[in-house]
Amino acid sequence: MGRLTVLYDADCPLCVHLRHWLLRQRQLVPLDLVPAGSHRARQLFPDLDHTATLREITVVGDRGQVYRASAAWIVCLWALAEHRPRAHWLATPAGQPFARAAVLAAAKWREALRGPEGSGCQDGHCDVPGAPG
Question: Would you give the end-to-end CA distance of the chain in angstroms?
């Protein structure tokens, strides 16, 4: 695999934070980070369900492979020099429950940022919660 495209929710503070984190890492496989549902994403992948890419992280390989949810996180880690060994472990039967739990926790945090429908994220912007107290 020569390149991966990561489709992320540009209106989600957690997703944007993880985008910046990925860009700071040493990449063994280059990562292109593209806002999910954007004009560019639709041009690059016209056959992809772009509504679904806004609900969960989606990674597309340079040969058309599509990874979603925990598989997408694992392939992102696999692309990084410092995290490839962890990705190999997360892909095993012993590691898969941990990968799934991490993705579910991130989804719950993301949902909490958005709040109940119609509240929380005015004007398409959500605030990252501060430290307690």
Answer: 46
Distance CA 14, CA 21 (A): 10
Q: Is 68 exposed, middle or buried (0-12, 13-18, 19+ CB in 10 A)?
A: middle
Structure-block tokens of residue 94: 């012993």
Q: How far is CA 70 from CA 66, 96, 132, in A?
A: 12, 8, 29
Q: What is the pTM of this model?
A: 0.79
> What's the pLDDT tens digit per position in 32-44?
999 999 999 999 9
**Six-digit token pair at 99?**
């990968």
Cβ burial of 82 (10 Å; 0-12, 13-18, 19+) is exposed
